[in-house]
Structure prediction request, 299 residues.
Amino acid sequence: MKRFFCILLCISLLFLSSCASGNTKNSTDIVASFYPVYIFTINLTDGVENVSVSNMSEQNTSGCLHDYQLTTKDMKLLSNADLFVMNGAGMENGFISKVLEQFPKLKTVDSSENIPVIHEGDLLPHSDQTHSNSHIWMSIDNAIIQVNNIASSLKTLLPESTDKIEANRAAYVARLSALIAELEPMAEKIHTKPIITFHEAYDYLASEFSLNVIESIESDEGGDPTTAKLAELTKTILDNGVTALFVEPAYSGSAATTLANETGAKIYTLNPITSGEKLLTAYEDIMRANFNTLVEAIG
Prediction:
């Protein structure tokens, strides 16, 4: 009996020692800053064993991260992360310095590397903004660059899975390239039609497919426009024969309704791909839905 208790004590001590060491991690934990880079990352790691991918800002219903505040849950998630996948182009500027200060050894990948960034005002002639436009993923060509950047970091992180990651990368890039070819004829039908969107999220899309975005509903400071801006937008809509206004799923302002009432333009919804289902094909599905909406509204 004494021998039995000695053995039991040794097993208990070994168990407690293992728990205390904190080295019982069985998977590689990857954290994506938000939805589009999360979708890119799960495509690249599909079928790779012992890899977990989390969308840090999954609970963020407003979409983009311009005013995002880190939560205790986020910090806990990042404390266990082996890689932090960022959109870049300024999207995470509101909190990334805090993350790097708190976790100086955290490996990060900026997926915007080698992507030319549009500065607001480059496409909208009446805008006086000078900040960089972070919505780079709305160009499919840019999305391909982001996928390639993320894949390079994943191969370094997971050298034993290089072949699988490369196969996933090649397959995904092929799908995205096919998506461009699929959407180009739809864009050709509408590229001369004047478009007014909710905000700058669609500048990259417009540039890639030569769409004629002439104005944005949101004010330069964010939110609904001033009374003077509403009057200017009303005149622009009437002068250019604009028949459709495009808002986003999370839009709750009143400006679009006011403009529609004043001009007779109808309101449609476009998705900036900042939230959605956890599906490998989510990016492609939403982009197709957006183009179907555009053709329905102004085609």
Notes: The chain is about 45% helix and 10% strand. The radius of gyration is 23 Å. The domain at 183-298 is CATH 3.40.50.1980 (Rossmann fold).
